[in-house]
Amino acid sequence: MFIFEDIFPRLWIQGMREKARILSGSFFQNLSESISNTSCRADTGAALESCRDDSVAFILKMAAIAAILAAGVAGVAIPLAGRVRTTDSNAFFTAKAFAAGVILATGFVHMLPDATSALTDVCLPKYPWHKFPFSGFIAMMAALATLLADFVGTQYYEKKQERQRKGRLSRVDSANSEDGIVEEKGWNGKVFGEEEGGGMHIVGMRAHAAHHRHSHPHGEEACEGHVRGHSHAHGSRGHSHGIGDGDEEGGARHVVVSQVLELGIVSHSIIIGLSLGVSQSPCVIRPLLAALSFHQFFEGFALGGCISQAQFRGLKATLMACFFAVTTPTGIAIGTGISSFYNPNSPRALVIEGILDSISAGILVYMALVDLIAADFLSTRMRCNVRLQIVSYVALFLGAGLMSSLAIWA
Questions:
Q1: What whole-number distance in Å separates Cα of residue 242 and Cα of residue 150?
Q2: Maximal C-alpha separation, the chain
Q3: Separation between Cα atoms, residue 339 and residue 57, nearest integer Å
Q4: Which tens digits make up the pLDDT trace of 46-57?
Q5: Which of 89, 163, 197, 204 is the most exposed place for a label (fewest CB within 10 A)?
Q6: ∠ at Cα 258 (252, 260), nearest 5°?
Q7: Collapsing DSSP states into helix, strand and coil, what is residue 197?
């Protein structure tokens, strides 16, 4: 009896060690296979070799760099060059809806299926790549991370703007006191909306403004007020009010949206640029050249509109626009340089492409749905203009449909 009690624990421990050794060996074997740089697509390679022409491919790559760079510059420059006139027009609103459809289709139809195809490729070991939907999971986590970045960034810029407003308000109060203007006080002797510490919180500022404005209408009358606004005298100084009182808050959102959107666009622009650059097949490059030029133009238009609405000025707007415009051409140039030793059909390349495409898909889908489509299509301006609703929805579906149709060639 004592002998069995002594032997069984030893056998159990030995069995567990054997299982751990097998699992460990399997894990490292799968890891080694996943980062291998050897090609496993002989049939695909043979098909591409039949259309391979290095000299023609190089010429097409140079043409692609020029065409995509020009398309990106044109797309991002249009809203920036005419920011005063175009960002408030219905034409700009409609074009932005079309661009939002393009970005949404890029995430759903181009990035996510490509990521799924790469991460479930037969070249990769079945465990873990075929046992779990990594592409959808990574895209979901990227979307949630974008939500977090969106929230934190918006909080930061709103607090920054609040501090700036307090500084401006204190300067205005000091100027008013020098001019002999006395603000209307409440029963406790404070300016309406003033906090106990004497500062003017943003809520207090709005209460102060509301205390001196006429009551605003709602419903259909609110739509009329959205167009009209009104003005009245306040002391010896006149000022006006409209429904656009939330513009300063919207400015913080536009700042964050423009930066996060650029991050999502740039991350996948590098991948598509590399994919074109490493190819030596004119049969692959020709359709990609046209598709990516179209794609880059409307992505640039959406980004340029966000930069314009964020009220970036001078150097910062120029840097953001240039960084977007040169990303895909830079990816093509890098791909051309490494095409002699880079193997796009290796497990390592498939894993890297799949992960980056999944991240890009999550970011772009979130940005398109939340910060571009929902923000514009649920706005007061859209609700109050039936014609704009119809045209914008047509533009949205048209942009998504056209971008989706490009998946036939690229």
A1: 27
A2: 104
A3: 11
A4: 555 567 788 888
A5: 197
A6: 100
A7: coil
What is the SS3 assignment for 66-124? HHHHHHHHHHHHHHHHCHHHHCCCHHHHHHHHHHHHHHHHHHHHHHHHHHHHHHCCCCC
pLDDT tens per residue, range 152-194: 888 888 888 788 777 777 776 666 665 555 444 444 444 444 4
Is residue 220 within 8 A of residue 234, CB to CB? The reply is no
Q: What is the pTM of this model?
A: 0.70
pLDDT at 231 over 60: no
Query: What's the confidence (pLDDT) of residue 194?
Result: 45
**Burial (0-12, 13-18, 19+ Cβ within 10 Å), 340:** exposed
CA atoms within 13 A on the CB side of 26: 10
Euclidean distance between CA atoms 363 and 19, whole angstroms: 40
Q: What letter represents residue 95's amino acid?
A: A
CA-CA-CA-CA torsion sign (15, 18, 24, 28): negative
The Cα 8–Cα 5 span in angstroms is: 6
Nearest residue to 250 via CA among 87, 37, 21, 22: 87
